[in-house]
Amino acid sequence: MERNPTPFNHRVEQLRDTLYRVIYLSDSPAGRGFDIALIVCILTSSTTVILDSVAEINQQYGRPLWLAEWLFTALFTLEYLLRLFCIQRPVKYVFSFYGIIDLLSIAPSYISLFVTGTHHLQIIRIVRVLRIFRVLKLVRLVNQSNMLVNALLASRLKIAIFLFAISTLLIVFGTTMYLIEGPENGFDNIPVSIYWAVVTLTTVGFGDITPKTDLGRAVSALVMVLGYAIIAVPTGIFTAEMNQELRKQEGRRAARVCPACGKRGHEDEANFCLVCGSPLSPNS
């Protein structure tokens, strides 16, 4: 005999649907209120962590700050569990950007029970304020941030090869300066000389280690000039990938056509036509 869904199961599904609309969507007063309250809690929690790191404040208000940190941890833990409960695919949320950040924002509190001092890592909660983009409907800003991330991912291999080449040059220049200047001029060993090479190549120039010989100064000048030339390389790589990603994004927008009025150029996240309001299919 087939059984109809029990009233309990029906109420659970209704609860999941309601929680999903409040937690994941911001197109209702309840959802918008939840997001704003969440951002206020995130900012307050981050302020608590910052104040707790000040010795004078910690000595005087250490206990209340500790209780406040655990109160926020409990609230964020409950929120995280509710997100898992009401979403259809919890695994997708867990491994998403916000899912990882949400987990990392509560993990330090529990780790601090076993490892002293790690609770200050709770400051990562401030990253969760990025949810304000969704609250304020700043879709274009989100699209631009996605474009930056995609460009970085696309250029990661080229940049990795570039960094490997730079690391090799730093070792060569550091070793050369160690042989030219030696410990008597502050270049005590090769690691210290490589540190000098990094500071000089990046044109920072702390001045804590400086060459004293004419040959060493000539090498320093070469490293400094080379540093200016090298800075342009990763910039060019990233710019090229940005242009390519921009062309891809424009192509995707051009492909999204409203079936009712024929309007083109809709954003990837758009669900309705910006002219006539007709629903857009994901692949339109």
Summarize this entry quickly.
With 284 residues, the protein is mainly alpha-helical.
Q: What string gives the helices and strands in order? A: HHHHHHHHHH
CATH superfamily of the largest domain: Voltage-gated potassium channels. Chain C
Number of helices: 10
Low-confidence stretches: none
End-to-end distance: 44 Å
The proportion of residues forming helix, as a percent range, comes to 55-70%
Measured by DSSP, the beta-strand proportion falls in: under 5%
Classify the secondary structure makeup into a structural class: mainly alpha
Shape: flat
What is the fold named in CATH at topology level of the largest domain?
A: Four Helix Bundle (Hemerythrin (Met), subunit A)
* Topology, number of strands: 0
Overall mean confidence score, pLDDT = 82
Q: Write down the CATH class of the largest domain.
A: Mainly Alpha
Profile the largest sheet. none
CATH architecture term of the largest domain: Up-down Bundle
Number of domains: 2
Radius of gyration: 27 Å
Describe the structure.
This protein folds into 2 domains: about 10-135, Up-down Bundle (Four Helix Bundle (Hemerythrin (Met), subunit A)); about 155-255, Helix Hairpins (Orthogonal Bundle). It is about 70% helix and about 0% strand. The chain is built from 10 helices and no strands. The protein has helices at about 5-25, 30-50, 55-85, 90-95, 95-110, 130-135, 140-155, 155-180, 190-200, 215-255. It starts with 6 loop residues before the first helix and ends in a 29-residue tail after the last helix.
